[in-house]
Hints:
- By secondary structure, this protein is α/β, with parallel strands linked by helices.
- It contains 7 helices and 7 strands.
- Strands 3-2-1-4-5-7-6 form a 7-stranded mixed sheet, sandwiched between helices.
- The N and C termini lie far apart (about 80 Å).
- The mean pLDDT is about 90.
- Bound molecules: S-adenosylmethionine.
- It holds the Pfam family Methyltransf_11.
- It comes from Daphnia sinensis.
- This is Methyltransferase type 11 domain-containing protein.
- InterPro entries: Methyltransf_11, SAM-dependent_MTases_sf, Thiol_S-MT.
Amino acid sequence: MFDSASKLSYPLIWTWIPHILLGFGIIFLIRKWAGNYLRQLFFASTYNKMLGTYHVTCRELKRQHFDSMKNQPSTDPVLRKKGALRILEIGPGPGYNFEFYPPNSELTVVEVNPFFEDQFFKKQADHPHIKMDRFVVGSAEDMKDVPDNSIDIVVSTMVLCSVGTVEGALKEIHRVLAPGGKYYYWEHILEGEYWWVRMIQHIASHRLCPYQFVFAGCKLNRKSDEIIKRNRVGFSHIDQQRFRTPQKGGFQAILIFHSSHLKGIATK
Length: 268
Ligand SMILES: C[S@@+](CC[C@H](N)C(=O)[O-])C[C@H]1O[C@@H](n2cnc3c(N)ncnc32)[C@H](O)[C@@H]1O
């Protein structure tokens, strides 16, 4: 019985092999040619479902963090007269931060994922107190469209986890800030307390882990706190704190892998 079954299965396996190879080949080609496109499309289409609750939970904490922005005088005399600021946000996604910006602010954004543009402008329509300057599709590590010393405030929330290198983004942020300008950041970072969370963060951050497709290259194990503190770009003052975002039960407990956070203000 066993012999005849195994004799039968050998020729069958040989007929499967070309199909299996073809399947792998197609997956490889899709990844190579359309991987980034599909990843960005998927991320932008599912972002609100995946992180909507996070934004509700953190809303008041973020409001407090951004509150001091209103005391910053613009270095542009015309804007200063109007009590307005020139703000650059990197990686705004669908635009959850509009509500934290002082009235009359002029906003430029640099966003690598073009599929967020429609959602962003829809949200902007609900915040007419913000004047949109430009939506640049590009990367924070190379903001050649933004002149040196031209920005009063740079903002990033949960972006340093995804940029090519944190150092490259910081160099550009420092370049575009006017002297005395401020960089407000709110980022998730490598877990400090629980070793098992750290271990899963390292696994999820490997480029072959499916999490990298679903969350468009978000690295859960970034040590942005240490990199900013090293201050290779030369901020004159850095004020930052680690904290944990509020935790909830049920399915949302999964946010433990994402709950170790950093907030800070760096001054040029
Ligand atoms: C987790 S989302 C955060 C979105 C938004 N800041 C928020 O708090 O809801 C990360 C965002 O950063 C963008 N991003 C990733 N890498 C980037 C880069 N190198 N330059 C600019 N934006 C980038 C992504 O496209 C995405 O919109």
